[in-house]
TrEMBL record, chains A, B:
Source species taxonomy: Bacteria, Pseudomonadati, Pseudomonadota, Alphaproteobacteria, Iodidimonadales
One GO MF term attached to the UniProt entry: DNA binding
Coiled coil spans: none
Protein known as: MarR family transcriptional regulator
Region (Disordered): 1-20
Pfam family, one: MarR_2
Length: 172, 172
DNA sequence: CTTATTTAGTTACATATGTAACCAATAAAA
DNA sequence: TTTTATTGGTTACATATGTAACTAAATAAG
């Protein structure tokens, strides 16, 4: 694949053959990032302007619609957001009246978050949109493809992605 | 945890059964987004502080390392970044001396971008890191899994993700 | 030509995000 | 207990990003 039919004495380029080149469109991290971005934007378009919700805000509502009375740090865990992002999104949601917050009586630092009636109503409107969008996406894949996708995501999610030890190179 | 093994006549919750709930950790767009983020951050850690490069900056260098003398808009196309992001990253790269720019003689609006010698040197350092990280990731997958992954990405990339027509709902 | 239109890129402004510093409450040590 | 460390969350600051408005060059129309 590297050299289609490369005439013998005529190298494509002296300094960089296919093996040492990085082809962005075939680079896995790049592909995942662009695909995921396109999907996220598309789905955000389903609710962002209609409900004035940002992606992190919706994530929090989505979690609290499913499991109620979580603390901010529990929300952070489950949404894979960091605590600062959660804090900010929560305060916006509180300001908009979509969330209710009180604090644990046993630990007065710990917040207890839940959707407000208003938030629940919005949740019930958006959630089917989100699910049907996902269904719409998956509908383009066969059963086996769907299974394979799920399997691969599980595999990749389970990797710890641990850093490769940087080839020693103390040139800093 | 709510009700482990639910006795027959005892509905889990009147208002939301599994079918109408959104389980974030199983929601495809969410899974893609978090996976891709983890990978991007990990890989960015390989070069960001060592070479003082942001992700968009590296993307541009990666493209120009592969194909030289592109215009800003061609870079934008190939990196899937928008032209504003490209403009900003390009000006940072110029400032750091990693890029050279001149303008087309036939169309004086059109920029012609290329890595500077310095940029090329950096490219040659980073690129193997990026590739070996990818290899490291893929090494955890079997040959079939890798093929399936590539196939699925191609499938998903080819979808136009077109918006589902919003169920009419003029409540704005 | 002279005036629209389109195209390439940049700039402005408002908002979002990340990192680190911070405050308050709890838990652990001394 | 008083001191010290840890944990839950928020705030500040610097940087990044998105959208829209804008400049300049090139085309197309009149």
């Amino acid at each position: 694949m590297t050299d289609e039919h490369q005439p013998l004495a005529d190298k494509p380029r002296p300094h960089s053959d296919q093996k040492t080149r990085l082809k962005l469109p075939q680079f896995l991290p790049y592909r995942l990032a662009t695909l995921s971005n396109r999907i996220s934007r598309t789905i955000a378009a389903l609710y962002s302007e209609r409900f004035h919700l940002s992606i992190p805000e919706w994530r929090i509502m989505a979690i609290l619609g499913d499991e109620t009375d979580l603390s901010a740090s529990e929300v952070a865990e489950r949404t894979a957001m960091d605590k600062v992002a959660v804090s900010r999104a929560v305060s916006r949601l509180l300001a908009k009246g979509r969330l209710e917050r009180h604090f644990s009586s046993t630990d007065r630092r710990r917040s207890v978050l839940a959707l407000s009636p208003d938030g629940r109503a919005i949740y019930r409107e958006i959630m089917p949109l989100a699910l049907s969008y996902e269904a719409h996406l998956l509908a383009h894949l066969s059963g086996e493809e769907q299974a394979a996708l799920d399997h691969l995501l599980q595999r990749l999610e389970s990797l710890d992605l641990e850093m490769i030890k940087t080839p020693q190179h103390n040139q800093s």
